[in-house]
Design a protein that fits this description.
The chain has about 350 residues and is an alpha+beta fold. The protein is about 45% helix and about 30% strand. The strands form three sheets. It has a six-stranded antiparallel beta sheet with strand order 2-1-6-5-4-3. It has a five-stranded mixed beta sheet with strand order 8-10-11-13-12, sandwiched between helices. A two-stranded antiparallel sheet has the order 7-9. About 25% of the residues are buried.
Length: about 350
């Protein structure tokens, strides 16, 4: 392996975005972290003026030109950069001018603040979720014990009654006790270990799509698939992942059938992509799969967006608030992350699952 190849591999394994600019501020090189951050490939960016990648960035371009003229490094914290397709990223960046073979060049390093925020938010959510689940499990145990006694007493009472009309009342007690027990079981969640095997993520998504399409018939909702065929098999529990994805897609379906929807046709996009050299939680993986479930519904209220993965939190009057909580728990058991971004007309749940090296 040549030294040039080693240097490129080193740069591509960095989590910091690295951009190399010539003296005219045209892009000469992007490492993989920069490609992911800017959502543009090294080939596509080659020889683009930096102002074509960062739009409306006259102040930041001026900082680069000043640093280049003065031959001094410059660091800016919490910069907001708008990309060519409109996405805004929050970064710390450092400008490092240097000379190579008589040519003046600029090394621009980008550190994503959004990524750091995501890790902190996910760690906080996991910690809170674990604490809440332990509290719920303890509460569930205390509830199920008297429920069992109530149900047993109602059964014994029913055996002593000759009047069938009176037995209707004991049947109501038994049925309601069973309903509450099932609710507690769903709150507590399964402690069953994952049945891990190599699976095709698209088989999971197709199973979910088939189940949901049977439910959306006649409701004016279309399900659109956008799959990346290059995604390799990953290690997971297929039934648990189907349950997690089904909960998220059903959440989108219910949002699209709510009274506040303002569209002629509801759309749910199922999108998969391969991610390279990415961090899931706080661990770095060479490969991961990104699954996005996007709907054009009314969106999630801003005051709920930070709590939607907690149990018993629901925006619907008839909702139990368990679907997304269960999905979060399953994705976490798979060492993955689940995130949500929402505005009116566009809600996106993004699931990231690592692909372990075998």
């Amino acid at each position: 392996m040549t030294l040039d190849n080693i240097h490129k591999r080193l740069l591509d394994n960095l989590k910091t975005g690295v951009l190399l600019l010539d003296s005219n501020l045209r892009l000469c090189f992007l490492n993989i972290a920069a490609e992911n951050m800017l959502e543009i490939s090294d080939r596509q960016a080659s020889q683009l003026f930096v102002g074509e990648v960062f739009v409306n960035a006259a102040e930041d371009i001026g900082e680069i030109q000043t640093a280049l003229s003065n031959k001094r490094s410059f660091t800016k914290h919490q910069a907001q950069l708008t990309l060519i397709h409109g996405k805004v990223i929050s970064v710390d960046y450092t400008i490092n001018p240097f000379e190579a073979d008589g040519e003046e060049l600029v090394l621009l390093e980008l550190i994503s603040l959004e990524h750091s925020h995501r890790i902190n938010r996910e760690e906080s959510l996991n910690s809170t979720h674990a604490t809440t689940r332990e509290l719920v499990r303890g509460l569930g145990h205390e509830i199920k014990n008297p429920l069992g006694g109530i149900r047993g007493a109602a059964q014994l009472l029913a055996q002593e009654l000759d009047d069938e009309e009176l037995k209707d009342y004991t049947n109501v007690i038994i049925e309601e006790a069973d309903r509450l027990r099932n609710l507690v079981d769903r709150l507590v969640g399964s402690r069953k270990p994952l049945d891990l095997k190599l699976i095709n993520v698209h088989e999971v998504m197709e199973r979910v799509r088939n189940l949901v399409e049977a439910e959306v018939g006649g409701k004016g909702i279309s399900i659109i698939r956008d799959y990346d065929p290059s995604i390799p098999a990953l290690l997971g529990d297929p039934e648990q992942l189907i349950q997690a994805m089904l909960n998220i897609v059903r959440n989108a379906m219910q949002a699209l059938t709510s009274p506040s929807v303002e569209h002629d046709l509801g759309r749910i996009h199922l999108r998969t992509r391969i991610l390279r050299n990415t961090t899931v939680g706080s661990k770095f993986y060479k490969l991961a799969v990104s699954i996005k479930i996007i709907d054009n519904g009314p969106g999630i209220p801003e005051e709920m967006i930070d709590t939607i993965f907690y149990p018993m939190i629901s925006g619907r009057a008839d909702g139990t608030g368990l679907g997304l909580s269960i999905a979060h728990s399953i994705i976490s058991q798979h060492k993955g992350m689940i995130e949500c971004e929402s505005r009116k007309g566009a809600t996106c749940f993004k699931v990231t699952l690592p692909i372990e090296e075998t």
